[in-house]
Amino acid sequence: MIRDYAGRACTVTGAASGIGQALAFALAEHGARLALADIDAEGLDATARRARELGAEQVHADVVDVARREQVQDWADTTAERFGQVNLVINNAGVALTASVDEMEWADFEWIMGINFWGVAHGTKSFLPHLRRADPARGAHLVNVSSSFGLFGMPQRSAYSATKYAVRGFSESVRNELRREGSTIGVTTAYPGGIRTSIVRNSRAAPGTDRAEVVAVHDSLSKTSPEHAARVILGSVRKRRTRVCIGLDAKVMDLGTRLLGSAFEPVVHASIGRARAKVVRQAAPLS
Asked: Pfam families of this UniProt entry (predicted)?
């Protein structure tokens, strides 16, 4: 069980921005040893510099495309060699796609599946042998980041929701496999709601999509900071929680789908409609 991050070897994907960057900073403040990965070299370098300033005992930053199995495997093996063991693996990297099933291109579907699902699968399978070899006294834990859209299938997010539901099922199965064999490795699945990050700004969208409106609606519904999300995730690791919903919206989504099933759908649509109407009103020129 991980109760203290000081000196622990911790890995984070998607560390150049958003929740991943916030996790890197929070772990650095606790004196962790960090292995950070992202495809954004410039953002990753900035995260690594700041993590060192915040007190990380050791920081390695590697440009890794999590959709590429061989790159993740090489990174995992190199990380274990550098640190001698791996105590915490956080598969956080993710991207977004705004498009209906009719509108999306197969290439976009494959792109988002490669990062959001295969990235998690690659990270889990590549690092699991190293987590098994970790000193039990220092603990070993795996965190896979899903989404509140892995609890409820949102319109225009069919591909994104598919990846996040896949992360959910994959992670639950891994946890039960480890539990059945009596392993001490902890597994947490995180379900963030609307987080104030650049994921939608950097997302792909179907031709003709009003990207400015999509971003504005996302921003209006996103009430949780990346820093809060990082604190919740790291606190959940200490408590060995198996699942954690981050933000009031994620908690409402979880409870609503459990209690109401498909009857919860009109509630969500109404909420989105109100947010979109508010964005349109604010964007309208004054007469």
From this structure: adh_short
Is there a domain that residue 91 lies in?
yes
Determine the pLDDT at residue 286. 46
Give, in order, the Cα–Cα distances in Å from 218 to each of 71, 94, 147. Answer: 32, 16, 14
pLDDT 10s digits, 84-130: 999 999 999 999 999 999 999 999 999 999 999 999 999 999 999 99
Q: Over the stretch 189-225, which tens digit does the pLDDT of each residue have?
A: 999 999 988 777 777 887 778 777 777 777 766 779 9
Q: Measuring CA to CA, which residue among 92, 97, 101, 105 is closest to residue 20?
A: 92
Q: Could you tell me the maximum CA-CA distance found in the chain, to the nearest angstrom?
A: 68
Tokens representing 282 are 């604010």
Instruction: Give the domain range for residue 120.
Output: 9-211+223-247
What is the tally of structural domains in the chain?
1
* Burial class of residue 16, CB neighbours in 10 A (0-12, 13-18, 19+): buried
Beta-carbon-side half-sphere exposure of residue 201 (alpha carbons within 13 Å):
8
Is residue 74 a part of any domain in this protein?
yes
